[in-house]
Amino acid sequence: MADHTPPLESGQLLSPDLSLLTSPPPPPSMVNGDGAQQVILVQVNPGEAFTIQREDGQFQCITGPAQVPMMSPNGSVPPIYVPPGYVQQIIEENGVRRVLVLPQAEFHPGGHSPLHHPPPPPPHAHLQAFIPHPHHPIMPPPHLYSGMAGSTGDMNAQYISQYHPAHIYSEQVSSDTHPPHGRTPFVHRDERANKTYERLQKKLKERQGGQAGGGGSLVPSKDSPPLSPQKSRGTPPAGGDLQNGLGYKGVEEQCQASATVTGLGTECPGRERDVEPGELNEKTQALQEWLNNMGKPVVMDIQARGASLGWVAPVRTVADEEQKEGEEKSEDPSFSYEVSVSYSGKDGKYNTAYSGKELSATIEDLRPATDYHVRVQAMYNCLHGNPSEPVSFTTLSCEPDTPSPPRKASGTKSSLVLQWKAPCDNGSKIQNYILQWDEGKGTGVFEQCYYGPQKQYRVTKLSPATKYSFRLAAKNDMGVSEFSEPVDMMTSCSVPAPPLRPELIQAGVTWLCLQWNRPVGSPKEDDIGYVLEMEEEGSGYGFQPSYDGDEVSCTVRNLHRSTKYKFRVAAYNAEGKSNPSPMSEFTTAPDRPSCPCKPSIKGKPHPTSFRMTWDPPKDNGGSDVTEYVVELSEGLSGSSWEQVYRGSAMECVCDGLKPGWSYQARVYCLSEGGQSPMSETLQVQMPAVPPGPCQQPRVVGKPKAREIQLRWAPPQVDGGSVVCSYSVEVFAPQAEEGKEVYQGPELDCTVCGLLPGRTYGFRLRAANKAGYGPSSERTEVTTGPGAPEACQPPHIVCKSPSCAVVSWEAPPCNGAAVTEYRLEWGAAEGSMQVCYTGSGMSHELKGLLPATNYFCRVQAGNVAGVGPFSDVVLCQTPCSVPAAVSSVHALRESEMQVEDRSSDREEEEEEGEDEGDGPSPLLYSPSTCLGLRWEAPCDHGAEITSYLIDIGERQPILTGPVTKYIIQNLQPDTSYRIRIQALNSLGAGPFSHTFKLKTKPLPPLPPRLECTAFSHQTLRLKWGEGPAKSTPTDSLQYHLQMEDKNGRFVSLYKGPCHTHKVQRLNESTSYTFRIQAFNEAGEGPFSSVYTFTTPRSPPAPLKAPRVERLDESCEISWEALPPMKGDPVIYCLQCMQGNSEFKQIYKGSATVFQLANLSSSAEYRFRVCAIRQCQDAPEIIGPYSSTITLLPPRIETPASSSSMGPKTAEALRPRRSLTDEQFSFLIIALLAVTSILIAVAIQYFVIE
């Protein structure tokens, strides 16, 4: 809370020149006093200002938070001005009365009665000093009003004030009355103010008209805020010199031209195009820093739906100017600017509103009474500067939006009730509505029929059945909206007369189309409806409504066929219903009959005729069947039908048909209702006869040795059915009985299984559904010679593991001598290849693999062809020495583990690796060992028992049947030639190819570890010789580890540096470290363990002590600190009198000390510090607090005190020294002012 102002007389608050604010004031608190006078406390909330007028006529502004005490001479509560739409309410809590200003819809009467509701005071009322000046209309703080019944802290969002401060122009308000906080008070517009306002608006329009070439209309985007002026107010503008943009001539002089904004629909581009500063050269970095030096824009003119902005080009930094002193001055680059606007708060989403090279812009198509934030970003080519700090402004209120047309709620012959909805008020509450009508004349000339705040109105004394046009407009403090679209409404008429009887237009089977005429004497403007009633003959239900509407015709559906119906019609309007018309009778038409039942065959069909019969239809459609019609179709396609019978009988005979053919028959009937649908189709298959004899089969091509191909033609007579099968019989030489060799539908066949060079006889017969016909005459055919028979399986004899001899016997020649043999050989049965062709009876194979399975078969051939292959024979070659080792690889260092451990130790290590706590496995040194891995070669049938490793001049190494081996006891940094040979029980195989391997040099030794600096939370360690930060090219690196609470060493640092700072340690604690060096040769051994201990921590600094003067002594108190890890904390208080040195006046555990015998003319300064008393170590003294000053008291005489004014009385009050936060803020403010002055000087003297 700020310092309180001394109580002032209410007479000092008279301010005839100070205007009232339009926003509601926060509730002032009134404290009850004794006697005739009362002290009134005016609560000034944070962000608000309170203006009073002193005795000398000057104005004094008090900024919140503060409480201003004022004296009421007569002890009564002064009248409080309540803005339009608000009421006041008094609440009393704990003897304190509070006056709350609430919206009218939020006022809760009952518990407390209002004081009074005075009208708005005259322009020169004395009440202006009681109304604080907020920076922006905000709700009262929740912490101040949360405990009050019906307070503004309980307001909903729709009750937030919609009144906004108006503009203050330089011609209207002097600089003396201008508040320093940047928010201008409301000015009551008299005739002079209105003329000034109109003149300024005219100038602004002329200026915008001259710059209209650079802009267009603004189209709100889909993300625009809703059309409601009830917004939560954001942060006020930060600059103290911002006066809503008007009267700011300095910026207007710098602006070259202005541009009109075309829209807010484009979003501000992101920072994806920005280049990292580390990747730019020096010139580009300087230009980037120049772009980042963009100042915030200035709002120069604010309207209800637009605002004008101006800004200054970015300013170069001091470093850039010094760098350019010795160089030639180049022309400044031409910057472009991008203006972005946010309607969702300072940190909300910004949309691009302007992009160009001008230093000013006009934003159009904004929403009235809405908070906006605007910022500017400078750009040059592909470089984008940082956006400036956003500046907030609030658009002005204006007239309401155009309302929707009124609607008709109800009506009679002589009255209409109209209702409408309230449009958006655009920041000013709607006070009245204007309803106009054309008085039923239809000329388009409207007259006012209602003016008031209600949302409905009854228009009376109207004419029946007359059309009237209405339109609506809304009015608030800012003006009248446009009228809505005219809407037509009609009054009611009298009950209509009965219409004439309905007439039949057309009759159907299930429907009747009727029509009727409008009642005689009914006006055309009258909305008449009709009710058609129907009665079915014999139903017994009477007349039932079947249609209700305004048409004069109707089609009644879902009726019964051949049924009589009665109809009558009645007319009605808004006044009532007429009597029904005379009755009319109409009958529906009969329906066609249903289809006859499916026909059936009577008796057994003959090859050329059949008899069919059928039943009558189940539904005759309301009339008798007169005749039946039978249609017949040849085939199953049903493409063409022929009428074969017409008459009243229900059976007929169909003759003259073809045997074996298929026919379809169907029936339909005729009656008065029409023709019935076709019946289901009857399919009839006529009986067939066996086919006639076939011609002799003929031979196709040259007869083969064991098969003959025959072909024939179908018989000429098929017997009325398709031939479905043929049968071929073969007769052996000198045989009387034949054998069937083929039966099927094809017209050719191949007869197999014949002997070469023999004569055979063949005959053929055909068959259909009726059976087989007679056989054809016999055909004689002689077969040709054949190929030899299959050979017997060959015999195989292995001479060696790589050589075998195959022999075979001659097969039966089958009538022709064998001319050649073919031998196939292969390692797989399915992939054998021909390895011999000739007339010999044996063949020798060489180059075979030992201990391998082989397959072979033989085939014979003569002039007639090649015979079949013999059976496949399997052969396995004997075993041999192993093959050469083909693939050899060197092991990586991580794979060179020591394997000569016990199985228990290996199991423990595996468990430790699974848990993550086991030690790393021991590895062979790559400096003295070489690891080899190879793939096992083919053993050639005998298992490999060992390997022989030849390493040049050294003794060869014999290993077991393994594929990995580590050669030990080698020289570091030495090359070796190595080759490997496999051995089995049959001997040694060939050596592998020779390859070179080299051992690595020895790893480095660990350095010495030292502690160069320490504190209670950190330790700085150093090792080795070299700079603290090494280059990345250093091959030697270090690994520093520290032991944790579980006794494990954890890694702290790994790299080429020689120092490391260990942080976040505990005080007075010992820590254990070890270090290891490693390079390309590998990791060296760890050093011995080093132990370092952190010291104890000093006490924390104390805040400045508090001093209170007591007559001739003073009491000094300070905050207490808790014990530090069991060590008690005492305090040392020092005092300095005048300009002498600080002296200790107290040392102990207390936090309060009284200093007596103070000098009345001396100035005292105090400071205090905490001291930690360690049990086994000397005391640790903490830093001293900031000093507090005690000033000597001033003696005042009663006469002088009464004659001095409030300014002198305020100066005599004891001053308080600045706190640390206030002093830091003061230093920052001075530095900021100095930087701005230097930048302005550089801009003026260097750049320009």
TrEMBL record:
Polar residues bias spans: 578-587
Q: Where is the composition biased (Low complexity)?
A: 13-22
- Family assignment? Belongs to the FNDC3 family.
Q: Where is the composition biased (Basic and acidic residues)?
A: 187-208, 890-904
Q: Which residues are listed as membrane-spanning?
A: 1223-1247
UniProt cross-references to CDD domains, sorted A to Z? FN3
Task: Decide whether keyword Repeat is in the record.
Answer: yes
Read off the SUPFAM superfamilies from this record.
Answer: Fibronectin type III (SSF49265)
Which stretches does the entry tag as region Disordered?
Answer: 1-34, 172-246, 394-413, 578-601, 890-922
- Identify the domain of life: Eukaryota
Q: How does the protein's chain sit in the membrane according to the entry?
A: Single-pass membrane protein
Protein name listed in UniProt: Fibronectin type-III domain-containing protein 3A
Question: Which Pfam families does its entry note?
Answer: fn3 (PF00041)
Instruction: Give any Gene Ontology cellular component.
Output: Golgi membrane
What species is given as this protein's source? Pygocentrus nattereri
Bias category Acidic residues: which stretches? 905-917
* Subcellular locations according to the entry: Golgi apparatus membrane
Q: Which UniProt keywords apply?
A: Golgi apparatus, Membrane, Repeat, Transmembrane, Transmembrane helix
Q: Is NADP one of the keywords? A: no
* Primary location class: Golgi
* Annotated ranges, domain Fibronectin type-III: 293-398, 402-497, 498-591, 595-692, 693-786, 790-880, 915-1002, 1003-1097, 1098-1195
